Amino acid sequence: MLESECLFKGIAKPTYFDRWINLRIPFAAAVGSGGRTTLQEAVRAAGLEWEGRLHYGLDDARNTARLLVELMRRGAKIEITGSLAPPPPPIQEQEQEQQQKPHVSPRWITSSLAPPPIHQQKPHISPCGGALGVCLCYCGVASRGVVAVPGPMQGKCFLGCGNWTPVMGAFCPYFVWSN
Fold first, then answer.
1. Does the predicted TM-score (pTM) go above 0.70?
2. Is 135 helix (H, G, I), strand (E, B) or coil?
3. Are strands 82-83 and 128-129 parallel, antiparallel or unpaired?
């Protein structure tokens, strides 16, 4: 539904919508519900009263948020449970053999005296580096900022959630002071 809405409006769907948290998983861990539970049943099972009209988008969203807060209060582990991200492309078998082939001994040596195969690892690319020097938060959004509030930290650069808004705050907990 979100993709078709973005397509209809001629805007790109932000990549952070390609990952989500299915609250049924932490709910089952925190409350112990074994079967399929509706949102209204989950809210009540968590000891909360349903607020608003059932299946009214805004009321459902508010009750979902209240349920999330209650699950977090109970110590439930909240983490990404699903993703649309495609799996990494498979390494070609021939390319993989070349990476693992030792350079100091022929392939036909099978003696235990032969050196172990050399496993070359691809270089680790930091989210805060690379050619462009762009830093991405856990949402996958560019995230540079500068403290604008007068005080001792004014003018200092930081890296935080790129989805931060004045109303909602940060979407993810990423934050680090930059040099």
1. no
2. strand
3. unpaired
Instruction: Please give the structure tokens belonging to residue 6.
Output: 């973005």
Separation between Cα atoms, residue 126 and residue 172, nearest integer Å: 18
Summarize pLDDT for 130-176 with one digit per residue, the tens.
Answer: 444 567 777 777 777 888 888 888 888 888 887 777 777 777 787 88
Walk across the sheet containing 175-177 and list its strands.
Answer: 144-146, 157-160, 175-177
DSSP-assigned beta bridge partners for residue 145 = 158
60-104 pLDDT per residue, tens: 999 999 999 999 999 998 988 887 755 455 555 555 555 555 444
Q: Are 118 and 106 in contact (CB under 8 A)?
A: no
Query: Quick count: other Cβ atoms within 10 Å of Cβ 13?
Result: 14
Give 81-87's long-range contacts (Cβ < 8 A, gap of 24+): 81/20, 81/21, 81/22, 81/25, 82/19, 82/20, 82/21, 82/22, 83/18, 83/19, 83/20, 84/18, 84/19, 85/18, 85/19
Task: Provide the sign of the torsion angle of the four alpha carbons 56, 57, 59, 60, taken in this order.
Answer: positive
